[in-house]
Design brief:
Elements (H helix, E strand, L loop, with lengths): L1 E5 L11 H15 L3 E7 L4 H4 L3 E11 L2 E10 L7 E6 L15 H17 L7 E5 L6 H7 L10 E6 L28 E2 L2 E2 L1 H8 L2 E4 L2 H7 L7 H6 L4 E3 L26 H16 L7 E8 L8 H12 L4 E8 L1 H13 L4 E5 L3 H10 L2 E4 L9 H7 L3 E5 L2 H6 L11 E3 L4 H16 L1 H13 L4 H13 L2
Parallel strand pairs: 1-2, 1-6, 2-5, 6-7, 7-10, 10-11, 12-13, 12-15, 13-14, 15-16, 16-17
Antiparallel strand pairs: 3-4, 4-5, 8-9
The chain binds adenosine-5'-diphosphate.
Length: about 475
């Protein structure tokens, strides 16, 4: 089968969150299963772009709002990622440093999708499946079916993978004049509550829809940022496939970012060395349990609860633990988290940045990873933590519910709680501190977690079965 993934992010070319990890790994594993998988994404100006060699494979243009937009498709020359990676370059629109966050994001991603569809229209053959990821590629299933110029592409099967349904790409109807002429009787396939909603459109137009965990799909039926009714209506074509992790990138036995490589057999020793290095770097005392938080500092991740939870935890538990945060997001929160560093120097630090290397060192050196998320479509952090013998302390939601079993249950290994509240976080931290004192149980749990197989192998095969079903 030939599969084309269309995405805004792909690790290591450009990463903001889990979407990049998935699109950087899933195609590689699909190739290993004997299929041809390709990725096309916008040409963001990232270090990976400059450090690699590219060839131009296609040049063309399209009309967008009365202007002629030229685009170039470039391909990474050496197949470095284990699959063909293509980037769309549109001068002034896509060649920027950040992936998202510009005022003209709606135009940027519409232009990206138009370029991809124009390029596909010029192929001599057709892929068997186009797997679009999130709303940034959500107009493609509609365009293939209903834009007259793309009629020859109308029978290509499409799958929408939803990594995050909170963001839907809403845009005013005035923006849609940029699409090539389409069957206007079908306007309802683009509309949701009087705005163009690319995610809703893809849910309606794609042949199949999958979320990145079964638990998240269940939750979307009741809570989908306005699309609950649509998910219920279309549930017949929806399913959940849990994300895997890239065992080459996330491998404590070979990881070049960490000080000491280790496996399940020598986890106690390996973690102790990595913890010492991490604690030395941040001036912590390694005898105390080390909690970490890694992620976007936004409401979805319940990062706003962290300042109060951490302050109160220091009041209740005293100097019994250390806490290290790596993340960026809301400015107010960044400042508040940074201010705790001054109060609790020596056992608390917030590192406000995006730092891939440090994230690996933290998964390897920490004892507990806290994820109090309000919304978690799958969550990869807990899977990386487990692979590095770090106990996940998670709220039971979405993919966290599907992947973490509380250590009080049979074969459990994590610490789970129900509510995104300061009180529940404190209770979970208290249970974690108890677990830390019980060295024997902690050792069993670490080994058990590291032996769980969360590789992409199983999930990549599930994607193939999904494609085959259409
Ligand atoms: P989401 O995609 O919602 O942000 P996921 O748990 O699916 O959350 O994926 C988050 C990914 O981003 C993980 O690979 C995590 O390690 C990484 N990450 C998030 N914030 C940072 C950061 N500040 N520095 C390094 N890596 C980060």
């Amino acid at each position: 089968m030939e599969i084309l993934h269309v995405s805004a992010e792909c690790y290591p070319m450009a990463k903001v969150g889990g979407l990049a990890d998935v699109v950087g790994a899933l195609p590689k594993y699909q190739q290993e299963l004997g299929h041809v998988a390709k990725v096309v994404m916008p040409m963001h100006r990232t270090r990976f772009l400059y450090n690699n060699t590219w060839e131009v494979v296609h040049k063309a243009g399209f009309m967008m709002n009365d202007a002629y937009v030229e685009f170039t498709i470039i391909k990474e020359k050496t197949n470095k990622l284990g699959f063909d990676l293509y980037c769309v370059d549109i001068n002034g629109l896509l060649d920027r440093e950040k992936v998202y966050g510009y005022d003209d994001d709606a135009e940027r991603f519409t232009a990206f999708q138009l370029a991809v569809t124009e390029w596909l229209n010029a192929w001599q053959h057709q892929p068997d499946v186009i797997n679009v990821h999130d709303h940034h590629a959500g107009l493609i299933p509609f365009m293939l079916r209903h834009c007259f110029v793309y009629r020859k592409l109308a029978n290509i099967k499409t799958v929408l993978t939803i990594h995050n349904a909170q963001y839907q790409g809403w845009m005013g109807w005035d923006k849609i004049t940029s699409l090539p002429s389409w069957d206007t009787w079908r306007w309802g396939l683009l509309d949701w509550e009087n705005t163009v909603n690319p995610l809703a459109s893809a849910i309606r137009c794609a042949d199949r829809v999958n979320t990145v965990s079964p638990g998240y799909l269940q939750e979307l039926m009741n809570n989908a940022n306005g699309l609950e009714q649509l998910f219920n209506y279309e549930k017949g074509k929806c399913s959940g496939i849990i994300n895997g992790i890239d065992y080459e990138v996330w491998n404590p036995e070979k990881d070049t970012y960490i000080l000491d490589n280790f496996s399940a057999n020598d986890v106690a020793h390996g973690k102790a060395l990595n913890k010492k290095k991490l604690c030395d770097d941040f001036g912590f005392d390694q005898r105390y349990p080390l909690f970490i938080f890694i992620g976007r500092l936004v409401g979805e991740k319940a990062a706003d609860l962290l300042p109060a939870a951490i302050r109160q935890a220091f009041e209740y538990f005293g100097r019994e633990f250390s806490f290290l945060i790596l993340g960026s997001g809301s400015n107010a929160l960044e400042h508040e988290l940074a201010s705790i560093s001054e109060e609790r120097f020596g056992y608390y630090h917030s590192q406000i940045e995006y730092n891939e290397k440090l994230s690996h060192q933290m998964y390897a050196g920490a004892d507990f990873l806290l994820m109090p998320s309000r919304v978690e479509p799958c969550g990869l952090n807990q899977l990386y933590a487990m692979r590095y013998g770090t106990v996940p302390v998670v709220r039971r939601t979405g993919g966290l519910r599907d992947t973490v079993i509380d250590y009080g249950e049979d074969n459990g290994y994590g610490v789970c709680f129900n509510h995104a509240s300061v009180e529940d976080i404190l209770n979970a931290m208290s249970r974690s501190l108890d677990l830390y004192k019980d060295k024997e149980t902690l050792q069993h749990i670490r080994t058990r977690m590291m032996e769980i197989n969360n590789s992409w192998k199983t999930s990549a095969a599930a994607y193939i079965r999904l494609y085959q079903s259409i």
